[in-house]
Amino acid sequence: MMEIQDIMSGNFSQYPEETQIFMKEYTEKLRENIKEELIKDISSKMLNNIDKSKDYFMNVLTDILDNGYKGLNKLSTQSLIDMYLERKNQDDFLILLEKVNEQI
User: Fold this and answer.
1) Are 68 and 21 in contact (CB under 8 A)?
2) What is the pTM of this model?
3) Dihedral angle sign, alpha carbons of residues 30, 90, 92, 101
4) Could you tell me what percent of the chain has a pLDDT over 90?
5) How many CB atoms lie within 10 A of CB 84?
């Protein structure tokens, strides 16, 4: 049985080779889906608020330009999940996991 902590850490060494292959594929699909959802969420909020609040748009853009935006590809799976849960709720995360399960 897979442990979520192992998926988050990327540590699959204690599993049989077949399970390791599956876990790597699952983790990659999970990461792709989380990144896609984060990009949609961030861009949607920026675009929706550009007319309502140019200050919000400028604050987000300034933060990205001032601090750089560490590419989502460079973040650990744990960091991606944490970022996702900061923006979404646990129900959304469960729906995302179901989506990943269907893709595998």
Assistant:
1) no
2) 0.76
3) positive
4) 34
5) 20
- pLDDT, mean of residues 1-28: 86
Please give the Cα distance from 81 to 73 (Å, whole number). 13
What type of residue sits at position 26? Y
The token pair at 94 is 């469960």
By the 8 A CB rule, do 100 and 34 touch? no
Task: Kindly list the distances between the CA atom of residue 103 and the CA atoms of 25, 79, 100, in Å, as whole numbers in the listed order.
Answer: 10, 22, 5
Token pair, residue 58, equals 């400028």
The Cα diameter of the chain in Å comes to: 53
| pLDDT greater than 80 at residue 44 | yes
